[in-house]
Amino acid sequence: MTSRVASYNMRKAIGLDRLRKPDRVLSVLNELDADIIALQEADRRLGERASAIPRDMIEAESPYRAVPIENRPNSIGWHGNAILVRKDHEIIHGEPLFLPMLEPRGAVLADLRVRGEPVRVVGMHLDLSGLYRARQAKMLVDHLGERTTQLPSILMGDLNDWMVNSKALKEFQRHHQCAACGPSFPTRRPLGTLDRIFVSDHFKVEESGVHSSQTAKRASDHLPVIVDFEVLGN
Is residue 175 within 8 Å of residue 24, measured between CB atoms? Predict the structure, then answer.
């Protein structure tokens, strides 16, 4: 059976019209029809860093719930990173991952069970500095390799990387294949393949691409990227 994952830098729910519209972003999330979604810039940057889309709105108006990551009551993520999963899939575990950083960046990890299959998901938003991106990528890949329990894994997020053969991309591709989603930034004229999805060899990518509905073109400066996959051996 085919499953779908997506990654979306939602820009704190601020669209190209500079208005914060959580309901508009939620419409995009519903359009994606994914099993798992990694979000970047999901929380506001200032004050209590509350979720740009209230948790109760997500649960009431979408098929998703947020993986528990941080203990701030009004946040759904860590340094803006969050993972949403369909309500009928099992959440086994969630945690923040601390990265070497020049800017306030981070990553989140979730162990899930999707249609009976275990999967480990990492959502990330990497640094603007190429040097720090490479360090962050190496740390994430090494961390997955050092976990006591090994699971099929998917890494996705905004890499902030314009290069096609950068050190960060090489790090991620040591043990994962990079799905060919295509340019996702900026939404008016996508030129940069900044948003990436990597899958371990446990998965077969069936389709991949960029979600470019009219709503998505207005809701953020990034377009969501999606991957449809099957678990090998099923």
Answer: no
What pLDDT, on a 0 to 100 scale, did the predictor assign at position 82? 96
Q: What is the 3-state secondary structure (H, E, C) of the chain?
A: CCEEEEEEECHHHECCCCCECHHHHHHHHHHHCCCEEEEECCECCCCCCCECCCHHHHHHHCCEEECCCCCCCCCCCECCEEEEEECCCEEEEEEEECCCCCCCCEEEEEEEEECCEEEEEEEEECCCCHHHHHHHHHHHHHHHHHCCCCCCEEEEEECCCCCCCCHHHHHHCCCEEECCCCCCECCCCCCECCEEEEEECCEEEEEEEECCCHHHHHHCCCCCEEEEEEECCC
**Two tokens, residue 11:** 């820009």
pLDDT of residue 47: 58
Residue 66: CB atoms within 10 A of its CB come to 23
Distance CA 7, CA 10 (A): 9
Cα pseudo-dihedral 226, 228, 232, 234, rounded to 10: 140
CA 208 to chain centre: 15
**Predicted pLDDT at 186:** 97
Site of tokens 């043990």: 175
Q: What is the value of pTM for the model shown?
A: 0.95
- Tens-digit pLDDT profile for residues 134-159: 999 999 999 999 998 999 999 999 99
Amino acid, single-letter form, for residue 215 = T
For the chain, which ranges sit under pLDDT 50? 234
Tell me the one-letter amino acid at 186.
P
The pLDDT of residue 46? 64
Q: How many residues does the chain have?
A: 234
Q: How confident is the model at residue 16, as a pLDDT?
A: 97
